[in-house]
Amino acid sequence: MASILIIDDDTVLCSMLFEQLTAAGHSAVGAHTLTDGRRCAADRSFDVILLDVQLPDGNGLEHIATFKRTRTEPEVIIITGQGEADGAERAVRSGAWSYIAKPHVIRELDLHLARALQYRRERQKVTKIPVALKRSRIIGSSAAIGRCLDQVAAAAATDVSVLISGDSGTGKELFAKAIHENSRRSRENFIIVDCAALPETLIESTLFGHVKGAFTNADRDHDGLVKHAHRGTLFLDEVGELPPATQKTFLRLLQEHEYRPVGSNHHQFSDFRLVAATNRKLDELVATGAFREDLLFRLKALTIELPPLKERKEDLRELVSYFMHDLCQRYSLETKGISADFLDTLAAHDWPGNIRELSQVMEQVFTNPMLGPTCFSIHLPESFRVMQVRAGFQQDQPVGTISMSCLPPWRSFKDQYEIDYLQRLCAASAGNISAACRLSGLSRSRLYQMISKHGLSFS
Amino acid sequence: MNVFFYSPRRAACPNDCSYPDCAERCLWALRSRPVLAAVERLPYGALFPLPKRAPLRSGDLIIVHIADLRELEDLIDHRQALAHYRLVLIVSDQVYDGSRRYHLLNPRYIATTRQDAGDLETVVNRIAQQVDAEPEPVRAVSH
Fold it and tell me: What is the ipTM for the molecules in this complex?
């Protein structure tokens, strides 16, 4: 039976709920203020919290996240006398399990509670996180990377398809490998299918294999990668590059887990777990008809979005240390020191090529014949330092200069600023609308509106 | 991205060697294709450990020729050193059918020694195009 905390300033309702719950075999505790409720939640473990909205010392809706963050991560059911759509929406968005209007609470509570407890039991089975997550070559301890690792742990505990998205060089393959290595399939093969590398003429025989005589040069039977992935993990890298005809073939494979080697009349079965990765926005490809919606639906039972390096610069020091150590080992050199100016120069860069670019820059530092026991910014590639200096110079320049004697009209001055900003934004985001929205904080519709207003091309 | 060829076995065969799993013969066939004509052969043992002046950079593509299971196991022992590169394997039938441990090397593509070099040319070309489409990292060291 469950342990339940009731937080409601209505003492009569509180005692009615208490009796109803204890009669059903649950253990219940009551609190009449948020402060008391928070104290109870911190001191004891609860499975479910019944939370009123209007409390003497605050609004319950504003504290849902606090209650959910307590040790046992209880489910929160909102009970309120003021049933309204906005409040219900806010409760659900804040992570509440459900929302019951007080006039119906006695009648409806059992059903809501039973469902919440059933979900909680299932969730505890599913999100049983491995004691020590294997995260080979995934470096960093920022909150962003921590969230991704939590998702890896959750994915590894299940067998659902995972879609990993992120810009080039963010480490999608490493995360896919981490899911495999932490899953029950880790003793079997991790098979990479580079969808961008395979031409349509090779894709079927590569994936499904072929039998002798299937085509010219097929002088013997040949197993495909899908067979190799049996009981293991099939990793579809760059899945957004799949041509439409091949998408249909993949969809069938994902639905049935059955395939037919080229030239064979017999179907074979493969029990593989699918992880896919892409640097494309598949939703946008679906909208343009370049990617099948049903395939996307199959792929993204669980999604992990990897942050670009510029959004987790707090990991830079750790990453640099890692690459330093790795390069010293690779080239059989003694470990080098890292100066503050070296890190500062790296931190000032935007890293459009992400971790891969950082790794390449570090490699170039190591090939510098002037490198001594410590890395200084002078050891960075000259082209890199020049780019940094120029970027700094550009940042110091005003966007436009106004002569006091010839003040332009406000509207044209504002337009000039907007055009200048959009051009810089386009360059910084490499013409990627989603990245531009992220960088600028503008909504997609607002950005399109501004691009259209100034007749600019964002590509 | 540069493309290299590597074979763990030192081979001194002439170009007209007829042994199907010969690395030298395989390289000759690859170099007969326009896209792969300039493939540079890495010297035997060049990868372990990597000399500081080695031409390889992270992200380069290495076509690795594996003639037998012993060569495969040697490479698997050194897979940490290979993890920085994109690998395309050319394996003998004996290796392809005898072990699936070559997946531990995380290859982007696996061809067999019997396969037409044109297939490999297409795959390498497509990988190169994909890399070219990525954001341009800082290049060209000039100290």
Answer: 0.88
